[in-house]
């Protein structure tokens, strides 16, 4: 491909670096600009990834107004996805926004409507969609394995007995908009809906808990992500939900950052002709009677 695709970044933290790492594997992608409210962090990012020094900004508005971009990665805290996404779309820039899409349904809907209105691509960073396991599970479901789906459970947090993300962008509701339900629940719901072919939901209920996030003893046990500040922990660390579909099928959601257990079980889905379970993918069905 002769034409270089010019990519920008809003946010220059760890997630932006993850995006940059994989962009680097695409020969026709060029890093053109970066913005971050911490200008020193933006400068460091630019130096590491070869962004022109004159295209480093503190304000994303300045970046979009002064630099011509083809696409942008939005890598800000959850609650702050909506504003730069909408601004980019209105400036004619395609958007890859980190998961979760937004902190509220109304923000997500506004983002979607703007993408449609301005005819730009808006993609949410659900990399699980490209996992061979999830792709295979969807294909089995499409083949009729889950015909008559009536019950399932979708789970995230299998390895997070003590893995509360310590950064304020995760645990401070003013920055994040929410806790584990946004961080991991979005994966669990997206995986299930993608595999099942997006059945129509008619009723949703659930509960969220700040169970161990405010517990000083729990925070003192250093997990895989390190300890966290319990005084600044203002989000949920456990969530459970029930989704009822039009055919009265039920899907349970369970997600956790920390718990006194080794896991929440494995995701599974039951149909009249068979069932499947994830992590690893297993298929259950009758063969030859």
UniProtKB/TrEMBL annotation:
Gfo/Idh/MocA-like oxidoreductase N-terminal domain boundaries: 5-126
Alphabetized UniProt keyword annotations: Oxidoreductase
One Pfam family here: GFO_IDH_MocA
Keyword Oxidoreductase part of the UniProt annotation: yes
Superkingdom of source: Archaea
Single GO term (MF): nucleotide binding
Annotated GFO/IDH/MocA-like oxidoreductase domain residues: 161-263
Record has Oxidoreductase as a keyword: yes
Protein name: Gfo/Idh/MocA family oxidoreductase
Organism: Ignisphaera aggregans
């Amino acid at each position: 491909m002769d034409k270089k695709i010019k990519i920008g970044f809003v946010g220059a933290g760890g997630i932006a670096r993850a995006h940059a790492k994989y962009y680097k594997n695409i020969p026709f992608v060029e890093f053109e600009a970066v913005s971050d409210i911490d200008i020193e962090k933006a400068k460091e990012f630019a130096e590491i990834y070869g962004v022109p020094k004159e295209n480093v900004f503190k304000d994303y508005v300045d970046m979009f107004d002064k630099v011509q971009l083809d696409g942008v990665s939005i890598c800000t805290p959850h609650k702050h996805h909506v504003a730069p996404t909408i601004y980019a779309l209105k400036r004619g820039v395609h958007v890859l926004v980190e998961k979760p899409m937004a902190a509220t349904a109304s923000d997500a809907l506004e983002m979607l409507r703007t993408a449609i209105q301005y005819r730009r691509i808006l993609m949410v960073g659900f990399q699980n969609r490209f996992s061979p396991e999830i792709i295979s599970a969807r294909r089995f479901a499409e083949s009729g394995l889950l015909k008559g789906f009536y019950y399932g459970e979708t789970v995230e947090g299998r390895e997070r007995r003590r893995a509360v993300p310590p950064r304020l962008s995760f645990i401070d509701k003013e920055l994040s908009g929410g806790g584990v339900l946004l961080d991991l629940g979005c994966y669990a719901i997206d995986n299930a809906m993608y595999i099942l072919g997006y059945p129509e939901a008619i009723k949703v209920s659930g509960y969220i808990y700040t169970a161990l996030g405010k517990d000083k003893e729990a925070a003192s046990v250093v997990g895989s992500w390190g300890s966290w500040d319990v005084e600044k922990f203002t989000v949920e660390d456990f969530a459970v939900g029930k989704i009822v579909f039009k055919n009265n099928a039920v899907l349970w959601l369970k997600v956790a950052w920390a718990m006194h257990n080794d896991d929440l079980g494995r995701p599974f889905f039951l149909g009249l002709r068979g069932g499947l379970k994830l992590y690893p993918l297993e298929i259950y069905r009758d063969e030859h009677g």
